[in-house]
Amino acid sequence: VQLQASGGGLVQAGGSLALSCEASRSMYTTEVMGWYRQAPGKSRERVAWINTAGTDRYAVSVKGRFTISRGNARNTVFLQMSSLKSEDTGIYYCWLRGGWEFWGQGTLVTVSS
Predict the structure, then answer these.
(1) Long-range contacts of 7-11 (CB under 8 A, 24+ apart)
(2) CA 60 to CA 12: how far, in whole Å?
(3) Given CA atoms 81, 92, 70, 47 in this order, what sign does their dihedral have?
(4) Residue 76 pairs with which residues in a beta bridge?
(5) What spatial distance separates the first Cα and last Cα of the chain, rounded to whole Å?
(6) DSSP-assigned letters across all residues of the chain
(7) What does the alpha-carbon distance between residue 79 and residue 42 come to, in Å, rounded to a whole number?
(8) What is the pLDDT of residue 83?
(9) pLDDT of residue 96
(10) DSSP β-ladder status, 107-112 and 9-12
(11) How far apart are CA 31 and CA 91, in angstroms?
(12) Beta bridge partners of 91
């Protein structure tokens, strides 16, 4: 499965940014799709994920500020990020997990304080 992420960039603290990820096929009902991020010098952190039923989950650090959604075709997920903080800076990786795990190439999000 190929995952293509887009939408990263530079934003000021308090601002908003949206990411999108398109998979080369639709999600199976046993799969989840979402985002990890890796800040400089830190380990990769799971940020948000969603299943085909639309059930979503978030890391505590982003809950209430980030919203994940999926497209109707179930091969695209979106991450709307609001009230961004400098600690949200990092490379954001799109991720799909079922029987296997697949990763996108990553997109850089930089939040300036």
Answers:
(1) 7/79, 7/107, 8/92, 8/107, 8/108, 8/109, 8/110, 9/108, 9/109, 9/110, 10/110, 10/112, 11/84, 11/109, 11/110, 11/111, 11/112
(2) 22
(3) negative
(4) 22
(5) 36
(6) --EEEE--EEEETT--EEEEEEESSPPPTT-EEEEEEE-TTS--EEEEEEETT--EEE-TTTBTTEEEEE-TTSSEEEEEE-S--GGG-EEEEEEEESSSEEE---EEEEEE-
(7) 21
(8) 98
(9) 97
(10) parallel
(11) 23
(12) 38, 108
Q: To the nearest whole number, what is the mean pLDDT of the chain?
A: 96
Q: What's the pLDDT score for residue 72? A: 86
Structure tokens at 87: 């600690």
- Give the rounded percent of residues in the chain with a pLDDT score beyond 70: 100
pLDDT of residue 73: 85
Strand partners, 110: 10
